[in-house]
């Protein structure tokens, strides 16, 4: 709703500044749609992944996932709303929409797209807060798109500065914070994230995702993060790999090293199509082993 109102409010400004040079027709499909780079975990899987002390970190993983999906959807959705309107100005191979803002919008935005000349594009979305009289334009998203492989087959990368987005517009972008670098390959259904953010206590968090999705909805995700898994305040290095079938049944394997676990610990849990635990084990007795490994969708522990 907010995005729709924002686009409608900008329409009069954009159409009043039509330039005779239209941007390349490939541009509209060059920048990925929000749903194309979303991380799709099995529904309600967080209810099953109660890995003792590790459970909080799966919940945190899912929380980061949902926050990233929502935040990136807002930014990419805004870009797609902008490029539906005629370009404002053209300077050589650089196409600019804006600067523009609706009367009641808290921010002014502009989008600059550079036609590299080989079928690829660089793009920058910048914003300036209207609530601060001396505010300058800040870069919110900086990206590169290569649509040459065809519809839904392109690849590229972009960086979202959620903190800049919040400074520019403190009302609409959601709860995401920090900087997220994204590399995607739509044809291969692959996504990499480099996350630099803070937790609720303001402490720095550095994490990385590697995510692959099959056409049938099955998936494979590896999440690496440094954080405190309990005990003393010392941080542990945590790697969590989750794999799931199209039915939703799956398995999560986790490894902790450093901090309170010293040389390391591992844990594994499997869940069924109703996301109920069917097997659990760990190497240091976080919890008792239970269930039958034969019930697992994936028989073997497999960590990178």
Structure description:
The chain is of the alpha+beta class. The protein is globular, with a radius of gyration of 22 Å. Helix content is 17%, strand content 37%. The protein has helices at residues 2-15, 27-30, 55-82, 162-168, and strands spanning 89-91, 94-100, 107-115, 121-129, 138-146, 155-161, 179-185, 190-198, 204-213, 219-227, 236-244, 250-257, 265-271, 277-282, 290-291.
Summarize the structure.
17% of the residues lie in helices and 37% in strands.
Rounded mean pLDDT score: 79
Q: Give the SSE order as H and E letters.
A: HHHEEEEEEHEEEEEEEEE
Number of helical regions? 4
Percent of residues in beta strands: 35-45%
Number of strands: 15
Major beta sheet, specifics?
15 strands, antiparallel
Helical content class: 10-25%
- The backbone outline, from C-alpha atoms, is globular
Report Rg. 22 Å
- Which runs of at least 5 residues are low in confidence (pLDDT < 50)? 1-20, 45-57
Category from helices, strands and their pairing: alpha+beta
Distance between the termini: 41 Å
- Widest sheet: strand order? 1-2-3-4-5-6-7-8-9-10-11-12-13-14-15
Which tags fit this structure?
304 residues; 37% strand; 15-stranded antiparallel beta sheet; alpha+beta; disordered N terminus
Please describe the topology of this protein.
Elements lengths: L1 H14 L11 H4 L24 H28 L6 E3 L2 E7 L6 E9 L5 E9 L8 E9 L8 E7 H7 L10 E7 L4 E9 L5 E10 L5 E9 L8 E9 L5 E8 L7 E7 L5 E6 L7 E2 L13
Helix pairs in contact: 1-3
